[in-house]
Amino acid sequence: MPLIRKRAVLGAITGAVLMLAAPNLRAQEATIIELTQIPCQFIESENGVDRGFTSTKKADCDAINADTGNERLAEAKVIELKPGRYIFRVTNKNVPYELGFWLRESDYNWLNPIHKLTKTSISGGGLTIGTTQDYEVELSEGDYLYSCPLNTTPDYRLEVRG
Description:
The chain is α+β, with helices and mostly antiparallel strands. It has one domain (about 30-160): Immunoglobulin-like, CATH 2.60.40. It has three helices and nine strands. The strands form two sheets. The chain has a five-stranded mixed β-sheet with strand order 3-9-8-5-6, with no helix packed on it. The longest helix has 23 residues, at about 5-25. The N and C termini lie far apart (about 50 Å).
C-alpha cells in the first residue's frame, strides 16, 4: 500500500476513534451561580440578608459602604468553588439605575496592561431594573473578588480550590 494511502487510512481510523470518544472529551458544562443586586449589596453574598439600603445614585452606596462595608465584608459569605466553567447570573432586583458586574483575580489591577493580558477579569453593564444577565468565565485555582462598580458594593470574596 503506498505511503499516502496508509496515511489516509490511518487518519480515517484516528478520526473514527475520536468521534467515538467525543462524549468523554466534551467540555465541562458551566455551573450557574445566581446573584441578586439590591441597593449597595448582593443579597446572597451577605447571607441572604437584605439590609434595607436605599439608593438613587452611585454616591449613595459610596457613603453607605464607607460606613458599613468593612463590617459587612467581615460577615459576608465567601463563595467556594472548584476550578471550572461558571455562569454568574446577575439580576438587578430593584435598583433604579443601571448596574453591572465585575469578577477578577484578587490582585488584578485594571491600570496594569500586563494584568489585562494575563489575569482573569470579566465585567459588563446594562443591568437595568428587573433585568438579568449572564457572565461566563473559566476559573482556575486562586482568590477572586466580585462587585458592582456602578451600584457600589463591597468587594466580595470568591475562592477556587481543587
